[in-house]
Hints:
The chain is mainly α. The chain has 14 helices and no strands. It has helices at residues 9-28, 31-40, 45-67, 79-103, 106-113, 116-128, 134-150, 162-185, 191-206, 212-219, 222-247, 252-258, 261-273, 280-295. The radius of gyration is 19 Å and the shape is globular.
Amino acid sequence: xxxxxxxxxxxxxxxxxxxxxxxxxxxxxxxxxxxxxxxxxxxxxxxxxxxxxxxxxxxxxxxxxxxxxxxxxxxxxxxxxxxxxxxxxxxxxxxxxxxxxxxxxxxxxxxxxxxxxxxxxxxxxxxxxxxxxxxxxxxxxxxxxxxxxxxxxxxxxxxxxxxxxxxxxxxxxxxxxxxxxxxxxxxxxxxxxxxxxxxxxxxxxxxxxxxxxxxxxxxxxxxxxxxxxxxxxxxxxxxxxxxxxxxxxxxxxxxxxxxxxxxxxxxxxxxxxxxxxxxxxxxxxxxxxxxxxxxxx
Length: 297
């Protein structure tokens, strides 16, 4: 007898897309491993933004110059989409987010950032008529509540300023726009091309924030080079390639909600690597986020 056929190709592709998005969220969740040590070594948030984006551009350009040069060919009229993903989203999101972390507690900054899925769901419904289903709303509520619990926003004692809150909401808005501009760009180009050109713009824009003195100081510390490399490879280039690939096959709203796995990974790494205590509320928040992701499976 012939062997039983596995799931149809479209279903396999859909699940691979989900796996890409979840893997991207997990890698983004690791960013604290690099950022904490880079800041301890003397890097300011602006310098980390510069290293992250220019490093991402350099790595992608080197890889695709050897592997597939076709990704560098795009039409001039489509550059507006990459300005959107690179400058309006990636660059402005990181600047707002890191500055918010200086003015407010990390918990507040992280919770404000994860207003992004709600923004994506609303914008996707307006722009592409993506349905706002009961399942999507339940998943959205669970992940938003879960992010708030994971970051400890309900435990009290969090520092908040009006400027910080506005920057945090701005970070969420600009973060959300990657899924919007990326969706337009993916109509014409592969996920690889979209990622490369995103960092062409993000890397060029980040040069306006370069601080040579900080970079010169860091250059004398080999450990800083290794940390910067980890940030660029593991928590910048790889997750953006994975997320953009997943976005090409998954609704923008769903993809953004599923990416809420990021603070869960960050919380677990904080417990395992930095020996941060995990409260009952944190555990409940992790359960909420995972439940929201499971609903959208």
